[in-house]
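Hey, I was hoping to borrow your eyes for a little while. A protein chain has come my way and I'm curious about its shape. Take your time with it, there's no hurry, and the full record follows here:
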Amino acid sequence: MRLTHIEHIGIAVSDLKSEIRFYEDVLGLECYAIEEVPDQKVRTAFFRIGETKIELLESTDPQGPLGKFIEKRGEGIHHIAFAVENVTSALQEIEKNGVQLIDKQPRKGAEGLSIGFLHPKSNFGVLIELCGKN
């Protein structure tokens, strides 16, 4: 497995519209996409800075994973996503190394990417997402 770059940093927010305004008006970034991902019960907004993206995540269901995260920990950094060439083989290789996975098989994420999450209990408390086009 080879990580190619940081694909994005996911930030949990309570109010997507307010946070978009902050990133645009204060930081000068441009929101280039807003997308709902029903499977994950989130609405996302993306900003590009260099080769990396910032993904703002707003829960569409208080009982969904992100809703529970915000209730327990509040707003803030939710995950870091690394780009890989093949998500399926990366997940298999990582599992062979004894890392607990949330996703044993890739699923569809925002922007049409295949994604898979590693459990934060195996990653020193950091939720890691792997992303790729396959």
